[in-house]
Design a protein that fits this description.
The complex is a heterotrimer of chains A (about 230), B (about 300) and C (about 300).
Chain A lengths: L4 E10 L2 E11 L4 E5 L6 H9 L6 E6 L2 E2 L5 H7 L3 E4 L13 H12 L7 H12 L3 H4 L8 H13 L5 E5 L7 H18 L2 E6 L2 H7 L2 E6 L2 E7 L1
Parallel strand pairs in A: 3-8, 3-9, 6-7, 7-8
Antiparallel strand pairs in A: 1-2, 1-4, 4-5, 9-10
Helix pairs in contact in A: 3-6, 4-6, 6-7
Chain B lengths: L3 E12 L2 E13 L4 E5 L6 H9 L6 E9 L2 E2 L5 H7 L4 E4 L13 H12 L3 H14 L5 H6 L7 H13 L5 E5 L7 H18 L2 E6 L2 H7 L2 E6 L2 E7 H6 L4 H8 L34 H5 L4 E4 L2 E4 L4
Parallel strand pairs in B: 3-8, 3-9, 6-7, 7-8
Antiparallel strand pairs in B: 1-2, 1-4, 4-5, 9-10, 10-12, 11-12
Helix pairs in contact in B: 3-4, 4-6, 6-7
Chain C lengths: L22 H7 L1 H19 L35 H37 L1 H15 L3 H12 L3 H27 L3 H9 L3 H37 L11 H8 L8 H28 L10
Classes of the chains: A alpha/beta (about 230), B alpha/beta (about 300), C mainly alpha (about 300).
Chain lengths: ~230, ~300, ~300
Amino acid sequence: MPPLLRIKNLVKTFEDNKVLNGIDIDVEKGETLGLFGNSGSGKTTVGRCIVGLEKPDSGSIFFKGNDLRAMNRREKKKVRPQIQMIFQHPEVSLNPRMKAFDSLVEPLKIHGWDDGYSLENKVEELINLVGLRREHLARYPAHLSGGEIQRIVLARILSINPEFIVADEPTSMLDVSVQAQVLRIMEKIQQEKGVSYLLISHDIDVLRKVCHRIAFLKNGRISGVENA
Amino acid sequence: MSYLNVSSVCVDFLTENGSVKAVNDISFEMNKGETFGIIGESGSGKSVITQAILRLLPSNAVVSGKIFFESEDLLSIDNKKMRQIRGREISLIPQNPAGSLNPLLKNKLQVAEVFEVMGVNKKEGIKSVLGMLKNLLMKEPAHILENYPHELSGGMKQRLLAAMCLSYKPSLLVADEPTKGLDSFSKKGTLDLFRHMKREHGNSMLVITHDLDFALEICDRVAVMYAGQIVEIGAVTNVLKNPSHPYTKALLNALPRNGLIPLNGHTPSRINLPEGCLFYTRCNLRSDKCGSERPVTKSNKGVIVRCHLY
Amino acid sequence: MIGLEITCLQNKSSVFSLKKDGIAGKILNRKDITISILLLALLFVVAISYPLLDFSDPNTIDLTNKNLAPSAENPLGTDYLGRDILNRLAAGTTTSLSIAAGVSAISLFVGIFIGCISGYYGGIIDETFSRIIDIFLSFPGIVFALTIMGFLGSGVINLILALSIVHWAKYARLMRGQVLSIKENEYVLSAKIIGAGNFHIMRKHLIPNSVATVIVLATIDIGHVILSIAALNFLGIGLPSDIPEWGAMLSAGKEFMRTSPYQTIFPGMAITMVVIIFSIIGEGLRDILDPNDTGGEYL
C-alpha cells in the first residue's frame, strides 16, 4: 500500500538560493510526521509546495499514488480540498472582518456536502470536536485568543474532511498551556478522523512528544528520519 | 532598601462593558543586580505591570499603588521626570525586535536617533554602540550599522536593540518576551546574549516571559502571574523545579517533556471577578473553601504562594 | 454608549481586546468631526428636499430686483439677473452633491475593481493595468477634465463622466497597493487552499479588508470634486447656464464684486465650507477605521 503522501526529489530555488535540494519524504495514512529544521531551512517551503502555494522547480508529489504535478486543473481542483494547512500566526489566520461562524462555514458553502446533515448539525459536530462553544462562533477574531483561533481554523478545515493536514508551526506563537491543548486536540482529531499530519516545527520537544516519526531538514535535504 | 518595590499596584481599564481588572493588587521587590522574572501567559497581566512601571499605559487605565524605583515613586512623579528616567535609567527591549526598527533607515541612523533624543553627541553615541556590539559578540559591528534592518537576522536585530539600550548604561533593563517565536538556535543565541549582559554589565534585569526554560537559565527569582495576581514568588529553582501553586504545577506539566498535559477551562472574567480563588475552576486540588474565599499569600518552604493548600 | 478602545502592547489574544461598538465614542470625542457630520447631514437634507419642495424657480429672472443686498425677502440678496441667491445656493446644493456622488460612485467602482484585479493577479495583468493607471495619472486633473469636456460637450452626464475619468486611476493605484499588502496574509492563502475561486477571494477577503483607505481618500476627495465642478463652471465649460451651480454663480457674479459682492461671497463660502467638511470627515473616517488608534494619549 503506497504511503498517503510521497515526495520525491523536490527542488525549489528562490533567487539564487537553493532552498530545497532534493527532498524525499513519505507520510503514511494516520501518521504524524514531524519536520524539524531551523529558521530558513526551507521547512515552510516544503509545506507550501504540498498544498500548492508554491510551485517546485522539479520533483514529484504523490498523493494516494497520483502525481499532483501531473494533474490537470479539474483533477487538481478535486484533490486539493483533501490536503489542508494550518498556519503559525493566529492573528492573521482568520479574516478579521468575518465572524468566526462565517469563517467556519465558508468551506462548506463553497463545496457543499452530501451526508444529509443540516448545516447546524455539522457546525455542532465541528465545534465539539475542537472543544469550543457557540459563543465563540459569534465573535470576531479580534475577540478570540490565539488558542481559540487555531481551534476555529482546525474546525474549519476539517469541515471538508481532509485526509492530510500540513501544520506549519501551529503552536509556536501560543502559550505553553494553550499549546498543550491545541496539540492534544489535533491528536484527538487524528484518532477520530484518521487524518495524517506533517507537523513542521523548530521545537524538538514537541515533535518528540507528538509525532510518530521525525524528519530532519538540513541544507536543503533530509538528513535523517528518526522514530519518536 | 530594595531597588524596585512594587507595592499593591492595581491597574484597571475602563471600557463600556465595565472596569477590567488587569492587574489585581501586585506586590513584589527586586534587589539591585538581580535578574527577576515575571512568568505568565497571555492575559495574566505581565505586560500591563511592565507598562505601568514604564508609565506607558493608555489613557483609559486607572493605576493605584506605588512603584518605588530607588526610592522615587514612579507613579507620582511628573511626566518630565519620568521621561528622564525612561530610556536612561530604565530601558526596555521590546517584544518584537523587527517591529522596533524603522525599515527605511540604515541601522546607523536609528542608533543615532536614540542619542539625539537623549541629548548626547551622536558620534560619541555611535562609538559606544559599536563598542557595545563588539562586546555583545557581534562580528563586524561597523558593517551592521551600515546595513538596513531587513538585512539582519532576528538574533542580530535583538542584539542591535540590546546594544542601543545598554549603551546608555541603564540601571534597570526590562526585556519583554525575548525568546518569543524564536527557533531553538536563536533561543540559544538570546540566552548567551543575556548571560553575557548579566556577567559583563551587571544591570538589574526584569524579564517578562512565558518560556519556562529561559527563565530557569537566566533568572534569580521569579513571580508567576495568573489572572492579574501573583500566585507564587521565590527563587527560580524553588518555583520552577518544586512548584507550590497548582497553576505553576499545571504550567510545568503542560510542557511537552513533562507530558503535554493541557490545562482545561479558561481564565476568569476580569470584569466580574469570581468570589473565591481565581484559579478555582481549573484547579484539580481544590476544596470547597476555594470557591468562596480568596486566598492570601503565605510562606511555604522559601517561596510565597497564594493558595488555600498552605 | 460611549466607550474607549484598549490596545495591549502584548499579542491580541489577551483578555483586553475589548472593542467597543462606540464608533460613536470616537466621533463624539472629536468636536470637529461631530460638527462636520451634522453640517453634512444638513446639506444632504437640503440637497434631497430641495427638488421635492415647492420653491419658486431659481431661474426666474427679475431685472427690477437685481443686485440687491440681503433683506427679509431675499435673505442672501439677489444676483445680477434678480434671482434669489439663497434659492440658487440651495438648488446648487442638489446639483453639486449629486454630481459629486455620481463621480465618486463611478470612479470608486472602476478604481476598486481594476486595482483589485491588478494587485491580485499580478504578472502581465498587473503590468498592463499599472501602465494604464500611470498614463491616466500623468495628466493634470483640470486640464484633463477640460479636454474631455471639450470633446463631449457640456451637460451633467458628461461632467460626471469626465471627472470620473480623471479620478478613477488614483483609487485604482491605492487599491492595488492595499491588495498587495494583504494578499499574502494567511487567511487569504487559507481560502485558496480550501478551494475558493478567485472572485470569491476578492469579494469576501481582499476587498473588505483593503477598501477602507480608498474610501477615506474618496471622501476627502469629494471636496476636490466639487471644487473641480466649480472650476469648470467658472471657466464656462461644464453645465449649461440655466442649471444653478456654485462655481457658475461665482463666475457670473465676478463682474459685480465691487458693487454687489453677495453673489460671489455666498457661493464662495458654500464651496469652501463643503470642501472643509469633507476633508474633516474623511480624515476622521481614517482615524476611526484605524484599528490601532487608542483614541487617547499615554499617561
